[in-house]
Amino acid sequence: MDSVKTDEDTSMTELIQDLDRLKLLVAFDAILVEGTLARAAGKLGKTPSAMSRILRQLREHYGQELFERTGKGMVPTAFAENLRPRIRALVAEANSLLLPECDSKPVRDSLLSQPPLALNQWRQPDRGPGATDIAQRIAVMNKNPEASLRFASYIATIGNTAGQTRPLNAAEADDAFTILLSGQPADVQIGAFLIALQSRGLTEQELVGFTRAARRHSHLDDPGTGPFDLDWPAYLSPRTQGAPLFIHAARLVARAGYRVLMHGPHNSVVHRAFDYAQLPVLTKPEAEHADDNHGILAYLPIENFAPDLRKLHWLYPLFMMPNATQYVSALLNPGAAPATLAGIRGSDRPKLQLEAAKELGWDRFAVLLGHRDAAQIVPHRSQALFVLRDGEVTQNRLFGPASNGNANPETNDNFSRLEKWQAIWDGSVTHPDATAAIIETAAVALNLLSISATPMDHSRAEAAELWANRRK
Question: What b/e readout covers 87-111, taking b as 16+ CB neighbours within 10 angstroms?
Answer without folding.
Answer: bbbbbbeebbeeeeebeeeebeebb
